[in-house]
Amino acid sequence: MRLIGMLDSPYVRRVAISLEHLGIRFEHEAVSVFATFERFHGINPVVKAPTLVCDDGEVLMDSSLILQFIEAAPDCKRSLWPRNPMELQHDFRAVGLALAACEKSVQIVYERNLRPKSAQYEPWIARVTGQLLAAYAGLEYEVQQRPAAFSAADSHASIAAAVAWQFTQSMLAELVVASWHPALVALSARQDETLQFRKYPPAGPGVSAANTA
């Protein structure tokens, strides 16, 4: 299998780290949807990261669907989701909040970096910023209220929360203030000590150099 996409994408990084935890063998190809658009188009005409090229050549998209497919495969011997139904419900909420935070972060970054200043619509930016802050407020609450659940480095909730937090802090730290989110700061620091996070750092043209050391 081949995982296509840059690690400055939180979605690509989430998949790479999760596959590593699951013990799934794959090749990572750092292809950019911007700098190497034509190459990415040749692999997947939709040009969406992450893209997973399966062993038979079929192309899958969307980080959550890719991971669902991987865990459903016969050769995958474990899951990063909890078995207890209530714990699963809580982890689904946490991952949903983390993915929403990623989505809103990306929307703001694209608005700032790709749209001319004269064409940027401030009411829209304010609305998305409010959604971003709400997602992180909810995620911070989840981590604070369930410290035992987030102590496991190899859960989907812990991985998604830390990846999302690190991406937003690399791009929008002035909007999402670290001192307001101590539990997420601590979770991110713990994950940075793991082999999986170290193997797949958030490197790429979209990440500030100060955050890739």
Main beta sheet strand tally, sense and closure: 4 strands, mixed
CATH class of the largest domain reads Mainly Alpha
Number of DSSP-assigned strands: 4
> How helical, in percent, are the residues?
40-55%
- Measured by DSSP, the beta-strand proportion falls in 5-15%
Query: Going across the major beta sheet, what is the strand order?
Result: 2-1-3-4
Low-confidence stretches: 208-213
CA-atom Rg in angstroms: 17 Å
Q: Topology of this structure?
A:
Elements: E1 2-4, H1 10-22, E2 27-29, H2 37-43, E3 51-53, E4 59-61, H3 63-72, H4 85-114, H5 122-145, H6 156-172, H7 182-191, H8 195-199
Parallel strand pairs: 1-2
Antiparallel strand pairs: 1-3, 3-4
Helix pairs in contact: 1-3, 1-6, 4-5, 4-6, 5-7, 6-7
Overview of the structural elements:
The protein is mainly α. The chain has helices spanning 10-22, 37-43, 63-72, 85-114, 122-145, 156-172, 182-191, 195-199; strands at residues 2-4, 27-29, 51-53, 59-61. It has a 4-stranded mixed β-sheet, covered by helices on one side.
Keywords summarizing the entry:
8 helices, mainly alpha, 213 residues, 4 strands, Glutathione S-transferase Yfyf (Class Pi), Chain A, domain 2, four-stranded mixed sheet, single chain, globular, Glutaredoxin
Short characterization:
The chain is mainly α and 213 residues long. It has helices spanning 10-22, 37-43, 63-72, 85-114, 122-145, 156-172, 182-191, 195-199, and strands at 2-4, 27-29, 51-53, 59-61. β3 and β4 form a beta hairpin.
